[in-house]
Amino acid sequence: MQHVSSFRSKLVRAALGALAGLLAAFTALAVAELVAGLVRPAAGPVTVLGGAVIDRTPAAVKDFAIRTFGENDKIVLQLGILAILALIAIGLGILALSHRRAGAAGVLLFGIVGAAAALSRPDSTGTGDALPSITGAVAGAVALYVLATKAAPVPAPNSQAGTGAWSRRGFLAAAGVTAVAATSAGALGRYFTGRQGQGAVASREALVLPEPASPAPAVPAGVQLKVPGITAFTTPNADFYRVDTALTVPKVDAGTWRLRIHGKGVTRPRTYTLDQLLARPLIERDITLTCVSNEVGGPYIGNARWLGVPLADLLEEAGVKPPSKGGRADQLVARSVDGMTLGSPVEDLMDGRDAILAVGMNGEPLPFDHGFPVRMLVPGLYGYVSACKWIEDIELTTFDAYDPYWVKRKWARRAPIRTQARIDTPKPFARPVAVAGTVTIAGVAWAQRRGITRVQIRVDDGPWQDADLAAQAGVDTWRQWSYRWSATPGGHDLTVRATDGTGQVQTEQRTRTIPDGASGWHSVFVTVP
After folding, report:
1. What is the b/e burial string over 28-56, where b = at least 16 CB atoms within 10 angstroms of the residue's CB?
2. Peptide bond into 212 cis (omega under 30)
3. Quick one: which of 71, 66, 73 has its CA closest to 513?
4. Residue 440 phi, psi (nearest 5)
5. Is there a cis peptide before residue 373, judged by omega within 30 degrees of 0?
6. pLDDT tens-digit profile of 64-115?
7. How far apart are CA 355 and CA 376, in angstroms?
8. 3-state DSSP assignment of residue 366
9. Does residue 271 come out as left (phi exceeding 0), alpha (psi in the -120 to 50 range) or beta?
10. Residue 445: which of 471, 468, 423 has the closest Cα?
11. Which of 20, 105, 108, 343 stands 20 to 30 A from 360 (CA)?
């Protein structure tokens, strides 16, 4: 019985220590969030630690995360960080029961790690970014020390068991006060963080987009096929893919936003406000964007109607010339407010294509997720070298002189979009029912800057058959296609390939997304009842 009682006592003691550690961690994070809400929300410890993890994660692992978790990859990362912190907190709490100072020091150590991560971020604004992590760690260390003290039994002349019971009651009271205080601090932090973003939200709501000086050409009749399950020609803003490294979506106030153009070959540096950009002649274009992380047949592609300022005009006014005309810079580095850097070939930006600084998307100001107030996009280039969101700085330089974020992580410097075709319907492993003996196979194909001239379907190992093409809106947009298949019962492999406007047939060779985009034919297996 004595051994059972001793085991129970140790178990209760460990549970109290674990609870003390979790409450201390909760206190640290809540206080840090409060301070971040007052100082700078992007300096919160979970955000900066998550950013540091993303920066140091190999490209192959990032690609796996995007394939596996899609747009939820950031949530998974944050939950993973919190889970690891919880396990460490439990360990420190149990340690603190016997060594209170060591446990508290462990909490302080994590505050130092968070502060270092905050100061190392590319968007760091200075030493103030370390304040949330340090302040939170101090609060967590104090909480752990007090809770560990309350959890320790205090010898007394009276019954030791009774003293222990009183000690636990004191611990529970202290734990309750800590939990309430931490919850209040966290709630206040969220309130202040929300207030900091209110100006940005109000500035977006108040923004009225001007009419374009050059409206988008009318979309031809027949660009949208009447086939159930096919992707819509225009992707709604809410459904448009999002792939970036921002754990917290930047909320930028349009009234305070500025864009700077400077660097090599810039003879007339410029700084623009949003109002100055909106006062310029704007163009409106339908452009399909593609992420380099899009696997063969993947979802990270979308088409929208964009409104913006021609980028080439701004560069020419700044005195920039493309290399083919004697320009000194061959790379444009775009910087985001969160420190992201993307590098685009200057020659491509000034070759006549509709490279723009976009302010509108499908008839409304850019959503925050997609770069409000201004983002860059360049038809024909994968997003990681061209589609900088929340842009605030443009520097002209050379590819030899500077490697942007993704190039440092072994992605290619230049990345023209590959010719691709995708089967939208029927879905993989579907059991399509033939109507009048036929099954409609349909999907989209794209080859921005070249256009799509042919799509072919192959059933099993049979011959390639031409699909019917929808009308083409332009060389910078995807194109729908369909094929009426005389289906026979059983299992079948359906494969698609496209031919671009240069006559080049899409390659069969399968490659990974790294370093410059996936290639290969898209296939699905279906069973006809």
Report:
1. bbbbbbbbbbbbbbbbbbbbbbbbbebbe
2. no
3. 66
4. -90, 120
5. yes
6. 777 777 778 878 888 888 899 999 999 999 999 889 999 999 999 989 999 9
7. 8
8. coil
9. beta
10. 423
11. 343
**Assigned token pair, 417:** 């979009």
Sheet holding 438-446, edge to edge: 420-425, 438-446, 479-486, 468-469
User: pTM of the predicted model, to two decimals?
Assistant: 0.87
Residue 122 corresponds to which tokens in the numbers above?
Answer: 């590319």
Q: How far apart are CA 362 and CA 205, in angstroms?
A: 15
* CB-based contact 132:118 (threshold 8 Å): yes
Tell the residue number behind the tokens 């159930």, with chain if given. Answer: 228
Both tokens of 299, joined, read 């979802």
CB 463 within 8 A of CB 485: no
The Cα–Cα gap between 323 and 198 comes to: 43
What is the per-residue pLDDT across 388-422, written as a single tens digit (0 to 9) for each?
A: 999 999 999 999 999 999 999 899 999 999 999 99
The neighbouring-strand residues paired with 454 are 499
- Structure tokens given for 510: 């399968």
**Tokens at 75, concatenated:** 């949530």
SS3 of 444, please? Answer: strand
Residue 26 has phi, psi (to 5 degrees) of -60, -40
